[in-house]
Write a structure and sequence with these properties.
- The complex is a heterotrimer of chains A (97), B (480) and C (469).
- Chain A is mainly alpha-helical.
- Chain A has helices spanning 8-18, 24-46, 75-78; strands at residues 58-60, 85-86, 89-92.
- Chain A has a two-stranded antiparallel sheet.
- Chain A starts with 7 loop residues before the first helix and ends in a 5-residue tail after the last strand.
- The model of chain A has no long low-confidence stretch (mean pLDDT 93).
- Chain B folds into two domains: 3-248, Amidase signature (AS) enzymes (Alpha-Beta Complex); 257-303 and 371-478, Amidase signature (AS) domain (Amidase signature (AS) enzymes, Alpha-Beta Complex).
- In chain B, 38% of the residues lie in helices and 13% in strands.
- Chain C has three domains: 4-284, no CATH class; 293-402, no CATH class; 408-467, Arc Repressor Mutant, subunit A, CATH 1.10.10.
- Classes of the chains: A mainly alpha (97), B alpha/beta (480), C alpha+beta (469).
- Chains in contact: A-B, A-C, B-C.
- The interface between A and B is large, with 41 and 57 residues.
- Strand 3 (89-92) of chain A pairs antiparallel with strand 10 of chain C, so a sheet runs across the interface.
Amino acid sequence: MNKTTITTDEVKRLAGLSALEFTEEELEAFVPEFERIVELVDEVKNCDIGNSELKYTTHKLCGCREDEAKESLPQEEILLNSPKTKKGSFCVPKMLD
Amino acid sequence: MKIDELSLIELAEKISKQELTSFEVTKFYIDKCNEHSDLFALLEIFEDSLDRAKEMDEKIKAGFKGKLAGVPVVIKDNILYKGKKASCSSKFLENYVAQYNSTVVQKMLDEGAVIFARANMDEFAMGSSTENSAFGVTKNALDPTRVPGGSSGGSACAVGAGLTPVALGTDTGGSIRQPSSYNGVVGIKPTYGRVSRYGVVAFASSIEQVGPITKNVKDNAYMLEVLAGNSIHDETSLKEEVPNYLSYIKGDISKLRVGVLKEIDEAVKGLEVEKSYKNAIKFLKENGAEIVVTSIPSFNLTLPCYYIIAPAEATSNLGRFDGVKYSRRSKDAKDVDEIYFKSRSEGFGKEVKRRIMLGNFVLSSGYFDAYYNKAKKLQQKLIEEGKKAFATCDVIVLPTTAGEAFKIGAKDGDPVSMYKEDLFTIMANILGVPAISIPFGKGPNGLPLGLQIVADRLNEGTIYNVADFIESKGGEYARL
Amino acid sequence: MQDYDIVIGLEVHSELKTNSKVFCSCKNQFGQEPNTNCCPVCVGLPGALPVLNKKAVELVIKAGLTMDCEINDIAVFERKNYFYPDLAKAYQISQLVKPICVGGHIDLENKTVRLNRIHLEEDAGKLVHSTAAIGTLIDYNRGGVPLMELVTEPDISSADEAVEFLTKLRQRLIYAGVAECKMEQGGMRCDVNISVKKRGSLELGERTEMKNLNSFKSVYRAINYEANRQIEVLKNGGKIVQETRKWDDNHNRSISMRKKETSSDYRYFPDPDMLAVEIPREDVEALRKTLPLMPEELKARYISEYGLSEYESEILTRENHLSDYFNKTISFYNNPKEVYNWILTEILSRIESSENISISPENLAKLLKLVENKEVTRTNAKEMLSRIMENGEEIEALIKEYGGGVDETALKALVENIVTSNPKAVEDYKTSDTPEKVFRWFTGQVMKETKGKANASKAEEFIRELLNK
């Protein structure tokens, strides 16, 4: 069994992908805890399942939705929960092009 | 006659026959919920519920017929009901108001239901104790020092404490069955795709299902018939006709082949549940069922398999909570990146962050094949093993949990031990097959234990027949 | 430049011509008020699920068939995960391991460009970068519009070839009814991957990518600029850095974009909300039967069957609307050369786009028949055409006005009158060495009197009758 080691840098990389911030303190607690969780899932990494192709659950093309346009929601409904809107649009601080 | 002594089916019948009004029934339950607010099963009682109840009474007078005409229902806080909040017990969605109805809510409304409250849960359905709610811990219906289980802890507690005749939960790895077991009620996770997930906030799309939590098996069968069925908004919902599940309940199990798993024999040794599990098998045998020893050889890998697939899907499903389009946006965010990082860091609780990180770990480049892809192939292998097992038997029985509900705080700071709460329930999610938990036996503190009955895909009817048989005739053993 | 080879691969995105979006039933429609073509799916509301549009898959299959692609038996949809405000769900539903089409090629004048794949994905919303006070505005109307992405092999070696490739691709997509490729609306966008290497060297250079070029001109200029830039860097002993560069059309230059390292790990995995799509062979064959002739095939037919020149055929097949118009017109009036001439001289000068030609093929055919039967003169027919196309007048009214407007008895009387009141001319006709000239003078008189409305062949008949008495 090869154990996966988790470095602080690795956790930082994952935090970047996750759009999450961790303080140094939080990181310190998080890394060993995360390592224990990875140890759990390593059982899958280390198990032997032989060679198999992944199969997909499918449906037939003819069963897919017909191309008919239907009414959309009213603009005010769409924007209902938005933290900030302007001119009928969702709004964020100006981004660089 | 006390209203909360009536079953869901009896209640529906009495309201339909106008022997009871929806108003008085709804009011009764709302009052009872308020009385028991210390359980913290519910996050909100919808203030227009009594108006809706009155409206239903009018409709019933005018001839409206519906399976749930005037019947009060509680939904889990991750199920959308247009115009009502749905927060997933997360600070992130604290004030989120549903902009449309989920398919299950629509089906219940069409049948005349009065959806009157939303129930507490583990944040985004991640957890097994409801301690991960951002708004407070729900207590066990039978012992307030203990957890109600999770993630549908609020729903199961509400039914267990008699605060509602029925509640909806969602089950991704055991989130209906484990809390049902802890609160002494009946909960089913249907076949994957049997109930549409449209309008249910997604955690792990490929394995989760909505299901009813009820006081007894017949109520459960009655309720599932309302919830099940195809939705044009959900490709993964099944097109098969929904049967009348009650018609499967025959009061006879004499020709039934009951499978027991070799792997479970090993796993239960020394657990609180061991005795009641053995008793259940004994009871079934005594009542004419044939006990078949069968096997799902990779059973022990279901838990780690789940902790790859579920977080992978969750990390992607929760990406949409980014502070741009709805709900929480950090007040400190000065640019778009800060909106993402700060809103999410402030809005998500610890466990949610853990799973997002784990999901990104198993999906990220360099790890994808070793974890995610391997887990999907393992799932495929498990499904094959399941098929073989079900070729030898009609149902498989196994415990729902290792033991009674644990004390609030007992598993703090030990996520892996919390994950192992779902050891017996995850199999059904990974295989996509239906599984029910019914109360059976008691633990050392006299608290309820659960028995799971699992069947092959779309065989909910068989499950209900066996479950009802045990519920109505297994009393002797079930009390032990 | 001669010492270096340029290696170019293209990724071309085209919005598909469907009524509804790819994963929901909202309208696929350009130019609406912001966030009005949106539903829970478009905005990524909690609990919303994608439901695949059959037509979108069929259109990608059709596109593939026109380029000899292989159509996969199973198409899988995957999530490409990244955060960006125009991406409502924080993932784009796209295809990685099992796209709808693989392989295929488009033949250029002098080479074959191999295709790697064509897959189906969803378009993102639109960002409008306003003032700092207002901020960036997000409109999800375009979010979920079906997009096909075509990826070529790095077989292209110049800006000219790139434009030739894109022109042919665009023609095919339009002909097959797959996409409208309205460049000005962002209906077709191109990413260019480019590297250079010493001529003849087998080792590929580092490549750079320029994204979202939305005109052929930009593609052309961007390739030339970037190739030169890379060559200059190499000549000066520098190294090319693999990066995404932004093409600045206004200043005709490419600029390096700072990119975060994490942004390239998209963590693709099959979308668990969707089923994979089984594409049976018979469906593919049925779609193949619905494909119209492609421009090359039409061109060949115009040359061999209709006797048009290479150049003439080229003009007619550049736009499918025009070749459609031509085909329809000759189905009513089988004189390809004459129809071509009228289209070239009278119609093309009057229209901005061949999409809306304001005289129907039936009416053009009717007009040309009138000319052939000399019921109206060529000059009058041109006037009629002008009035139809520019004033929207009815052809039937114009026929009454210009032709058949003079009945036979009146015409006969008029001819008699003209002949009898011009005895000198009658004399000339009989004695002249060139009687036809005098004859034409008489016809001219009749036409002048009738303002050209007389049926010319009838008039000639009457005149000849009287003069030969």
